[in-house]
Amino acid sequence: MQDPVVIIGAGPIGLAAAADAAERGLPFVVLEAGQDAGAAVAGWAHVRLFSSWSELVDPAARRLLEAAGTWTPPDDSGYPTGGEWRRDYLQPLAAVLASTPGGSVRYGARVTGVGRAGRDLMVDSGREGDPFAVHVEGPGGPERLLASAVVDASGTWTRPNPLGADGYPALGETENADRITYGIPDLADPASAARYAGKHVAVAGKGASAQGVLVGLARLAQADPGIRVSWLLRRPSVGDAFGGGDNDQLEQRGKLGQDAKAAATSGLVTQVTEFRTESVTTQDDGRLTITSTDGQQVTDVDEVIVVTGFRPDFGFLSEVRLDLDPALGAARVLAGQIHPDHHSCGDVEPHGYKELSQPEDRLYLVGMKSYGRAPSFLAMTGYEQVRSVVAALDGDLEAAGRVELVLPATGVCNGAGAFDDATAVAAAPAGGGCCGPSPSEPQLVVVGGGCG
User: How does 379-392 read in b/e, with b if 16+ C-beta sit within 10 Å?
Assistant: First the structure.
């Protein structure tokens, strides 16, 4: 019996890979560390996506769901929250996949290691012909699965970037973890809102997730004028943070930028630029002082919200051979096209199994993980990635090579490497965005910052 394709992660891209495998009759096992499908999406369930339902459903998954006859398709023109995306698409899809002949979806199954069966990292002889050994910690204890191929769609959600500017937690960041939130809190939830009532809140981050936090805090402040916000930015100015406004081809993203700009200029928010956090210390009154590497200080802080992106976990891949960009941790071929320091928005070339191939044959990193630390990822990019990858695993190289992908303006330019260069920031195109209108409108899911 053929060993299955092991797919790591039951998020939108992992489940899309499974749908492609099911459609081609390939045996597959989806391993999800969480307790149900879309477990990571549950972490930002309250956030509305930038795109409509018509762009949030993988084509193979749609065919599978429609054939099952038990799915009620959502209104294609609607804009779901993460929770609605999970409830109305990801979880029904996982249920159908779990009942597919030759398919399995397992929860509470955390992958702890991937290697070649019987061969460690140093062994060359016969490596390509051997199956993978996937080590899993599940409800019944540790086990070892054999796999014909491994598709890692585990994403980056479980590893938020720290507040500290060195890439490590700032001094005192861990000790004050009870005052620090990573990601986007649900400020519409009364219990969450109460945490920030009347407080001085420091928000670190620039992207869509940080802007969503500013908008949420501004709404709270309408009823609670005691709230004030310090917005910590590593750059010399806000620059292109608010996007293209009315010119944005993703209407909801443009609206978020406009709302965030209004919040940032409302008097509620104090912008603190060129701030790279070195330490978080507790004052005598129990509040916090955040100190920058250049000695700047933000004092009397009650709460900190860190929305500075995410990074992939390669720990369980230490016994397989990878070729990754040394800065981003992305698939090397993609790095130059997605690095926010020097790429133009929307210039990611069409890519599939060839670009995502690793030195370890039949191992693919897909979805957000294929982008490493790059801050933005299009879900439709991931759908096209796994369509190509699974076709290649099935030996259909003609279909695998038929990759077509046009990206819209993502609004991600002048990345971290340019944050000290005021000239570079000032040179960003007028209108707030780094790109003009796009001819197409796929959805932006800013997984590196929570969602999109």
Answer: bbbbbbbbbbbbbb
Segment 318-343, tens digit of pLDDT = 999 999 999 999 999 888 888 877 65
Say how far apart CA 167 and CA 161 lie, in whole Å. Answer: 7
Report CA torsion sign: 311, 315, 316, 319. positive
Domains of the chain (ranges plus CATH)? 5-158+310-407 (3.50.50.60), 177-306 (3.50.50.60)
Instruction: Say what the pTM is.
Output: 0.86
Q: Are 278 and 293 in contact (CB under 8 A)?
A: yes
Q: pLDDT tens-digit profile of 231-269?
A: 999 988 665 556 544 444 444 555 666 777 877 778 888
Note whether 365 and 332 are within 8 A (CB).
no
Joined tokens for residue 287: 């509040």
Give the angle subtended at the CA of 435 by the CAs of 162 and 156, to the nearest 5°: 25
Residue 130 burial (C-beta neighbours within 10 Å; 0-12, 13-18, 19+):
middle
Give which of 345, 346, 388, 340 is closest to 364, Cα–Cα: 388
B/e letters for 289-308, b = 16+ CB within 10 Å, e = fewer, are ebbbeeebebeebbbbbbbb
Instruction: Work out the angle at residue 272's Cα, subtended by the Cα atoms of residues 271 and 276, and round it to the nearest 5 degrees.
Output: 140
| Amino acid found at 2 | Q
User: H helices within 77-152, ranges in order?
Assistant: 82-85, 91-98
